[in-house]
Each structure stands twice: as structure tokens, then as C-alpha cells.
Write a structure and sequence with these properties.
The protein has 505 residues and is mostly helical. Helices cover 63% and strands 3% of the residues. The protein has 21 helices and three strands. Strands 1-3-2 form a three-stranded mixed sheet, with helices on both faces. Helix 15 packs across helix 17 and helix 17 crosses helix 21. The longest helix has 31 residues. It is globular, with a radius of gyration of 23 Å. The termini are far apart. The structure holds zinc ion (ZN). Zinc ion binds next to helix 10 and helix 11.
Length: 505
């Protein structure tokens, strides 16, 4: 007979060992996307597949169920937001979800995702949707099956959304995103009709890569990313990967003739990285030391990238430094011109190149279409037309091809359905958190203009990072901002900033 504290210790020890394997897998994955020589890819895939198998086995180990059953009835659960209760609740959630999927479905999904991505690459290059359509159709059928296996209260999309944004419902996300869309479509239209035009050409001058790297690192360190506990490397598609309590890897890419590409992706990934670095090292691998949801993770990256990094106050401090770093490109450019250029808004076809405002409309298109595809309201055969119609309606442009239309993202081919809305949820949460921080800290413009970002970071650490998964995203939002998820602050921010830049009425 063991006592409850013994069982809890045993559970944590087991989960920490799984986290050890997961962090090794993350390190292999980071290396694969940064330094791995091309010929090493095949063996690397074997290493990763081996580890994933071991990890999956551990996360569905029947001993977990016994321990969790015993602990669920114990007084460790008295305070639902305590470390032990959070650990038991979240591990139970993970275990139950994983156990609901039949092995056959797990394998079929893995296969469909690998094949789907391969065919997607070819189909996109050839601008040939018909080549990809049968795989997409199969993927949505499998995801429907997955949703049924998980079960859901209202909408089959709920079940898939839960993988990325736990405890969020389709209904609430729909309401928030519809609110954004209704306000944003006319705002983007008004910006397009403004007589003012952002001088984007100046960002296409020559910005030497070495100077970009030095300047980007200086900025990341200044806002609070700790380079003793992390580093920055180069990759094709920037990402951030935490692989230990004191080891967080940022990646970016540099374009010598387009400044924002490298710089803002560094700020974005540093925002993710500071969330990782702000979590409790003693809880690494356990729910109280883990991120809440993709939406909350994205709120941190978007806040530092957009609300801080594209603000006037930020450049009040950094612009003279940028002029020293890039004398040829920026020496003759007034700060106001530069600020307007990095805040250019214009409808475009490609999501990953979109600006702060129109980006959300790209997401809303995908969110609406993937729900319709999942529920059978739209057939995969009709997707290209539906995609073009929505771009027309929300952004006022019609993609001339599918390569620049419904074939542009990897997500659906990889089975990531229910993932897209977390990007816009991130923007909404970011604005709500930022407004709450400004209110509590009494304005952030002044400290930012002095190069002081520590107040905001300390606030985020206390309010969000250190809380791990002790609250759901919805609870956290209410606790930190006093309000549930709502689009009001995001729209107020966009209206305020772009209204001024574009001299809107
Ligand atoms: Zn991100």
C-alpha cells in the first residue's frame, strides 16, 4: 500500500522522464531544421520516429491511469489551481484524449500527413489543385473520424480545436473572430482609400545580413530574451523551440533587401522564447511549468512583435541605433517615415507576408473554410472557388492561382485542422493583456522610449508565464484582464494606430 504523496512523486518522476525524451526529440528537430547536412535526413527521421514511438507509449502507459485514478480522489485536488491539482487534471486530460484514438487511426493519420505534405509540395509548385484534392479529401475524412473518437458537446470542430486551444469552444471563437471581421473589413477598405501611402521602398534598400543579425540580437536582448539561456540561428521558416529549462532556441531568416522579414521574426520568436524562459524551471515538463495554449503562446510573440516592436515608443529608443547599424539604408530617412513604412497595410494574397491588420482576415478565411470542409458544408472539390470568393469579399482581391490561393499553407496537408484560429486568438489576447498591463503599470510609452522593457516583462512573468497551466486560457484572460475573450481591444489598437498613420476620419 502506497500513500498519496508517494504516488504523486512517482507520477511526477515518470512524467519528468518522458519530458527528458521529448526534449531530446526537440533538440534533434531543431538540429534538423538548422545544421543537419542534407544526407543525414534519413537517419534523423529514424531517430525521431524511434523517440516518438517511445514517447507515445509512455504517455498512454496504463500505470498513469492507476496513479491518476488514485490521485483524483485525494485531497491533493482540493485547490484546483494548485500545482498537484493542475498536474493531475492536465495529465488526465492528455491521457484520456490519447487513449480514445484507435491505433489504426493514429497510424493512418501519421501516414496521410507525411504523404499529404509530399504531394502538397509538388502540387503547389505545379499550381495543380486537382493533384492534391484526393489527399485533402482523405485528410478531412480522417480528421472527422478523429473528432468523433474524441467526442464533442456541440460542434465537431470543437474536438479538433481542443488539441491546440484546450477548453475553447467553436462558438466562442466564432463570435470573437466574427467581431474582428465585421470591424476590420471596413477599416482595411478605408486604409486602401486613404491618400496616404507608406514609403515601403525604403525597407527594400540594402541591409547587410551581419548588421541585421547584430541589431536583431541587440534588440532581442534589450527586450529581455536571455542569451545565456538561449541562442539565435538561421532557418527557412522561423520557429522557437524550448528544449530544457535553460535552453531556448530562436531561429530566423534574413533578406538583405527587405528589413522587416528578419527583424520582426526575431522579435516574434523572442516573444515566444521569453514565455518559455519565464516558466518555472523546477516545473519543467510538468503542467505547472508548461504553456497554456497556442493562442496564449502566440499572444506573447505578437505582443513583442507588433504592440511593442512596431510602436512609436520602441523606435523612439531604437531608431538612432538602427541608423548607426544601417547607415547607407537609413542615414537619410526620418524616423516618422521609417515608422510608417514598417506599419504598411495593404491587402495581399499570402498569409505569411501579411501586415498586422490584414493578417487576421487571412486567418478568418481559413477558419471559416475548414469548419465548412469538416462538417461537410463544403466539398474539397469546391474549395478553390470558395477560397477566391472569400478573399474577394474580405480583402477585395482575387487570387489568380491556387498556388497563391488555397495551396499556400502546409497546415491542412499535415492534418493541422483547428490550428489557424490560434493565430488571431493570439492577436486578440495580446491586445487585451497589453491594455491591462498599460493600465496597471501606468503607461508604457515612456519606459519603452528609454529602452526600458523590464516592467512589461516582469508583469507578463507574474500574470502569465509563472502560472503555467494552472488556469485555462479563458480563466487566465478573465483573471488578468477582468474580461472574457473579446475583440474590442484589438480593434481599438488597430483603429488608433492606423487611423493616425493613414489620417482616417
Ligand atoms: Zn508564433
Amino acid at each position: 500500500m502506497t500513500s498519496t504523496p508517494d504516488t504523486y512523486e512517482r507520477l511526477c518522476e515518470f512524467v519528468r522522464e518522458t519530458a527528458l525524451l521529448e526534449s531530446i526529440e526537440a533538440l534533434l528537430g531543431w538540429d534538423e531544421r538548422t545544421y543537419l547536412p542534407p544526407a543525414g535526413g534519413e537517419y534523423r527521421a529514424e531517430q525521431i520516429t524511434y523517440l516518438s514511438g517511445r514517447i507515445h507509449k509512455r504517455r498512454t502507459d496504463p500505470r498513469l491511469k492507476d496513479w491518476l485514478d488514485e490521485l483524483a480522489a485525494s485531497d491533493l485536488m482540493a485547490d484546483p489551481h494548485s500545482d498537484p491539482a493542475t498536474t493531475v487534471r492536465q495529465l488526465r486530460r492528455d491521457f484520456d484524449k490519447r487513449s480514445k484514438l484507435p491505433q489504426r487511426l493514429v497510424e493512418e493519420l501519421a501516414r496521410a500527413s507525411v504523404l499529404g505534405q509530399q504531394v502538397w509540395v509538388e502540387a503547389r509548385a505545379a499550381d495543380n489543385y486537382r493533384m492534391f484534392e484526393p489527399l485533402l479529401k482523405q485528410m478531412f475524412a480522417l480528421k472527422r473520424e478523429q473528432a468523433e473518437a474524441y467526442g464533442y458537446a456541440e460542434h465537431c470542430y470543437d474536438a479538433l480545436l481542443d488539441d491546440y486551444e484546450p477548453d475553447a469552444t467553436t462558438a466562442e471563437v466564432k463570435a470573437a473572430l466574427a467581431g474582428v471581421r465585421e470591424e476590420l473589413v471596413p477599416l482595411v477598405q478605408a486604409i486602401g482609400e486613404s491618400h496616404k501611402q507608406a514609403p515601403v521602398e525604403l525597407l527594400k534598400r540594402k541591409f547587410p545580413v551581419a548588421a541585421q543579425e547584430a541589431f536583431g540580437k541587440e534588440a532581442a536582448a534589450k527586450i529581455g530574451f536571455n542569451f545565456k539561456r538561449g541562442r539565435l540561428d538561421v532557418t527557412h521558416h522561423p520557429f522557437c523551440s524550448g528544449m530544457g529549462p535553460h535552453d531556448c532556441r530562436l531561429t530566423t531568416r534574413y533578406d538583405e533587401t527587405f528589413f522587416p522579414s528578419g527583424f520582426f521574426s526575431i522579435l516574434h520568436e523572442a516573444g515566444h522564447g521569453m514565455y518559455d524562459q519565464g516558466q518555472r524551471p523546477d516545473q519543467f515538463g510538468l503542467p505547472p511549468g508548461s504553456y497554456v495554449s497556442l493562442g496564449i503562446h502566440e499572444s506573447q510573440s505578437r505582443m513583442w512583435e507588433n504592440l511593442v516592436g512596431r510602436s512609436r515608443a520602441f523606435w523612439d529608443y531604437f531608431y538612432s541605433r538602427a541608423q548607426i547599424a544601417f547607415p547607407q539604408a537609413l542615414g537619410d530617412v526620418p524616423a516618422a517615415q521609417f515608422l510608417f513604412a514598417i506599419n504598411d497595410v495593404r491587402p495581399s494574397l499570402i498569409r505569411v507576408e501579411a501586415d498586422e491588420a490584414t493578417y487576421n482576415l487571412h486567418i478568418i478565411v481559413r477558419f471559416e473554410l475548414e469548419q465548412a470542409l469538416l462538417c461537410g458544408d463544403l466539398s474539397t472539390a469546391d474549395l478553390p472557388g470558395a477560397w477566391k470568393d472569400k478573399y474577394d469579399e474580405y480583402l477585395g482581391i482575387r487570387p489568380p492561382s491556387d498556388a497563391d490561393g488555397c495551396l499556400q499553407d502546409v497546415h491542412w496537408s499535415a492534418g493541422l485542422i483547428g490550428y489557424f484560429p490560434t493565430y488571431t486568438l493570439g492577436n486578440i489576447y495580446a491586445s487585451q493583456f497589453f491594455a491591462a498591463a498599460e493600465k496597471e503599470l501606468g503607461g508604457l510609452h515612456e519606459p519603452f522610449a528609454q529602452g526600458d522593457f523590464a516592467g512589461l516583462l516582469a508583469w507578463l512573468r507574474r500574470q502569465i508565464h509563472q502560472r503555467g497551466q494552472c488556469y485555462t486560457a479563458g480563466e487566465l484572460c478573465e483573471k488578468v484582464t477582468g474580461k472574457p475573450l473579446a475583440h474590442t481591444e484589438l480593434i481599438a489598437h488597430l483603429r488608433g494606430k492606423f487611423g493616425e498613420l493613414y489620417a482616417l476620419k
